[in-house]
Amino acid sequence: MIFSEAAERNKQPILNILRPLLANRTAVLEIGSGTGQHAVFFASALPHLIWHPTELPDKLAILTRMCRSHPSENLAAPLPFDIDDDHWPTIQADAVFTANTLHIIHWPQVCRLFSRAGALLPQQGIFCTYGPYNRDGRYTSISNAQFDEWLKNRDPGSGIRDIADLQQLAEKCGMPLQHDFAMLANNRLLVWRKN
Ligand SMILES: C[S@@+](CC[C@H](N)C(=O)[O-])C[C@H]1O[C@@H](n2cnc3c(N)ncnc32)[C@H](O)[C@@H]1O
User: Fold this and answer.
1) Of the residues 62, 96, 143, 149, which has the maximum number of CB atoms within 10 A of its CB?
2) Whose alpha carbon is nearest atom 23 of ligand 1?
3) What is the pLDDT of residues 96-126, one digit of tens each?
4) Going by CA atoms, what residue is nearest to atom 14 of ligand 1?
5) Candidate from 104, 109, 151 with most ligand 1 atoms within 8 A of CB, to mutate
6) Which bin fits 176, alpha (ψ -120 to 50), beta or left (φ > 0)?
7) Is this model's pTM higher than 0.90 or not?
């Protein structure tokens, strides 16, 4: 994918939520930056912090092209990164952001992502996760149920995650849920804060 219509639609609503949350932060590590539309938009709107985009090595070229064509002083060069990597980027980030990844990666990778984000963040650091979620074992919309079926047909290990499962996981990683924002198209932006 070289351009995402969804990212174009959701970037401003996400920024509206992120802006106050990131007001006093210095660096954000983004996991699974995709086309880079979020990275270039957020970096230019939040000049007080460094935005560090990352992507799987085989998808890095698209992200790098986007970042080079929208340079900002505070937009770091994209890094190759796979959640399964043993070595995580050695970045002093006080926030981690990821959009539309938790339903793509497999549950062990979700666990790894929360555990490593929890280890990387300083006290009061935040982990922001945007995307579709289930609540109490139920879909929150017909479109999310259809999307989940499509995901699982394509990859049985993928699928929309339940907020309660994520809460259990995040609490084990020392990052309880701090905010749960309703977003466009039955998505949510969850904010986990390290304590
Ligand atoms: C649905 S796309 C979302 C892209 C972008 N964040 C957005 O919201 O438009 C999911 C992204 O997760 C990335 N991804 C999948 N598996 C990954 C892994 N193991 N480690 C890091 N990123 C991964 C994919 O390459 C893809 O860019």
Assistant:
1) 96
2) 32
3) 999 999 999 999 999 999 999 999 999 999 9
4) 32
5) 104
6) beta
7) yes
